[in-house]
Design brief:
83 residues, mainly beta, three-stranded antiparallel β-sheet, 5 strands
Length: 83
């Protein structure tokens, strides 16, 4: 699984940070601080999901409170309008 570019993307987090994978994202301006990214599953990831594999998630908090997170297969669940 890897983060991918998408039409609504307007930023890349960790662009010049070798320790992290660059994260293409849509960052809502002047809103509630919503950040949306899109991830592509490999063929084997899809097979694992098909057979009931669990998805594990690590969220970097950097000493701040944990923020609500939403995972979905639909772009419309994430407050960005299709172009």
């Amino acid at each position: 699984m890897k983060p991918i570019k998408f039409p609504e993307q307007n930023t890349v987090f960790a662009k010049n940070q070798p320790r992290y994978t660059p994260l293409p994202a849509f960052q809502e301006e002047g809103g509630d601080g919503v950040v949306v990214s899109c991830w592509k599953l490999s063929f084997w990831d899809k097979i694992r999901v098909l057979f009931g594999a669990n998805l594990w998630v690590s969220l970097m908090m950097f000493g701040k409170p944990l923020t609500p997170s939403v995972f979905s297969f639909k772009k419309s669940d994430h407050l960005i309008k299709p172009l």
